[in-house]
Design goal:
Blueprint lengths: L2 H7 L10 H9 L6 H16 L3 H5 L6 E2 L4 E4 L12 E4 L5 H16 L13 E6 L2 E7 L8 H13 L9 H13 L3 H10 L5 H8 L4 H10 L4
Antiparallel strand pairs: 1-2, 2-3, 4-5
């Protein structure tokens, strides 16, 4: 590829992401009538609390969660993180309702489903034939092999709320935009980009904080003359 082609290929293009209000609306409209529905709502909550990648979330086990400290440890030995990077992720103070939802799900797995440390945090459903039909009869204990079910659950949540069916990855951009106004010091923003697994603030800003041409003009014109 020549230099011109390389520049075109490397352009960072803006991709849509839900606003904080849209995310709250999508989550609040998720049903809770079944165990799987409750699992999906807790999944949505964790993604908004952490901005974790869907592949990592799909492979999480109960042992990776520390509810008391509000942290989960993405251990690359058994969590499918990008580039096999081990990441310590703390929940973000975006909305206490998300944390309540997720905490209740963890309690359900431990107390009602009797799941142990090595069992999946977001387990697949267990199916059995009953009266000639295949029905969900509980939860399996192993993790999903990929993130397809995670993405489907999140898209379904937004569709139910008559919103654009965003992907889990779009939450990362939502949270970066929120962080840009919530964590104002350089040290605090550095803590955030470490929290989502970035090694450099350049990665966070270039990938998730694009400035449109219109916004570029607004910002340039706001500066007072020297």
């Amino acid at each position: 590829m020549d230099a011109k082609g390389a520049r075109i290929a490397s352009i960072v293009r803006d991709t849509p992401s839900p606003s904080m209000q849209m995310a709250r609306h999508g989550c609040s409209n998720m049903p809770e009538a079944t165990e799987i529905y409750c699992r999906n709502k807790a999944l949505f909550a964790l993604l908004m609390l952490t901005g974790a990648r869907d592949g990592a979330v799909a492979s999480l086990r109960l042992k990776h969660i520390n509810i008391i400290d509000g942290c989960f440890y993405q251990d690359a030995r058994d969590v499918k993180t990008k580039n096999s990077k081990t990441i310590a992720t703390y929940v973000l103070p975006v909305d206490p309702k998300y944390l309540t939802c997720f905490t209740l799900w963890v309690a359900h797995l431990k107390d009602a489903a009797l799941f142990g440390p090595d069992d999946a945090l977001f387990p697949p459903p267990m199916h059995k034939p009953i009266d000639g039909e295949v029905k969900v009869v509980g939860l399996r204990r192993e993790t999903y092999r990929n993130a397809n079910a995670i993405r489907a659950a999140i898209k379904d949540a937004f569709t139910r709320a008559d919103l654009t069916p965003f992907t889990p990855h779009a939450f990362r951009k939502t949270l970066v935009k929120w962080t840009d106004t919530a964590y104002l010091t350089r040290e605090a923003f550095k803590a955030f980009f470490q929290n989502i697994g970035h090694s450099s603030v350049i990665t966070t800003v270039s990938a998730y904080c694009p400035v449109s041409t219109e916004r570029q003009g607004e910002l340039i014109k706001k500066v007072q003359p020297a």
